Amino acid sequence: MRANRVRGSEAVEAGSGTTGPPGAGPAVVVLLTSAMAFSMMQLFVIGAFGPRLVGELRISTTVLGLTTTAGFGAAALLSPLAGRLVDRAGPRRCLVALLVLTAVSLGLIGAAPGTVVLLLAVALGGVPQALANPATNKVILAAFPAERRPGVTGLKQSGVQCGAFVAGLPLSLLAAGVGWRGAVWAAAGAAAVAALWAARALPSDPAAPARGPGAASSPHGVTRRLACFSLLLGCGIASVNTYLALFGSQRLGLAPTTAAALVAVLGVAGIAGRVGWSRVAGRPGRAEALPALLAAGAVGAALLLAAALWLHPLVWLAAVAVGSFAVSANAVSMVVVMRRAAPGRAGQDSALVSAGFFAGFAVGPPLFGALASAAGYGTGWLLAAAEFAMAAVVAVPLMPRRAGARDA
């Protein structure tokens, strides 16, 4: 079934009105969620198949860790260019390219004979990461009326956690039967099928807008502030994602399977939080207030992780809190971007905020690892709490004044 046609215009892209297209069908929502899941699939499969990769390819755990830096580093560097590309080439072309490049990246990982090809494949996978938020946000602005955009944004942002779940369970079970390479190639095939789906489901992109003062303007203060917020938020989230299971195993005495379940709990809470808080952000006066509040909640989550050193069951509550607050804040920041983007700049503004988030993912874990090795996990979790606290401070000026809380 073909999805409803997406009618884009620069006026709609401003996101300032309550009118808009009647809204695309559920197929478009599923497509956008799938695109977000595939955009980071190469990193998810490496995380899920890490032990197999280390054993078969004979690479060190240090090199395995460099894959995260390669992927997110490439995405952070390429995001500004990707945003401009989406604004000029159109979201349909970029979504198809995203899925094709994901298929190529996964295919290379499945065929990798050693370290060099593996790192090159993950770096190539940084391009889909960079394209994901600008392209999907542009589709939402063009295809859905203003009142539906926050909810759809939360659903499509939850695709990232869905991708982690798919890599961690269905693909891992498939790998037990056909090997890890076969499982990765199956994911590559699924990405190729999704590319064909996107090409058929979305209409042709409109002609590129003429370059003028609006299109050439620099990002406004809200976008720059959200990029800084996302950098600090990403540092903390990436540290928790990377070290939570290891913390549970090494310091709390959890069995490896139980420790891995901590990450699953965090992921499920992140899915629910992104969907729920994005819907709340759709209410008048709420979107700009939420980033600071959610980051403040993330501070409490990081402190719970530190307290778990003395009261071990707190680690489960902390995992839920990180997913509910920290992970969800990223989805809400995308809602704010789409509400505040100037005409013709939705892709570029989304990309700038994404670049900050990806940079945080590249920088945060090495900082945490060095500090935790020198002073212990408790100090590392305090660093994460400090990063979340600084993010909250950065986001405070976004909060609307009481007298002006009504949305424009």
UniProtKB/TrEMBL annotation:
Residues annotated as transmembrane: 28-50, 62-83, 95-124, 178-199, 226-246, 258-277, 289-310, 316-338, 350-375, 381-399
Any single Gene Ontology cellular-component annotation: plasma membrane
Keywords assigned by UniProt, alphabetized: Cell membrane, Membrane, Transmembrane, Transmembrane helix
Superkingdom of source: Bacteria
Topological category with respect to the lipid bilayer: Multi-pass membrane protein
MF-aspect GO terms: transmembrane transporter activity
Subcellular location: Cell membrane
Domain Major facilitator superfamily (MFS) profile: 28-403
Main location: membrane
Disordered as annotated region, ranges: 1-20
Protein name: MFS transporter
Organism whose genome encodes this protein: Streptomyces caniferus
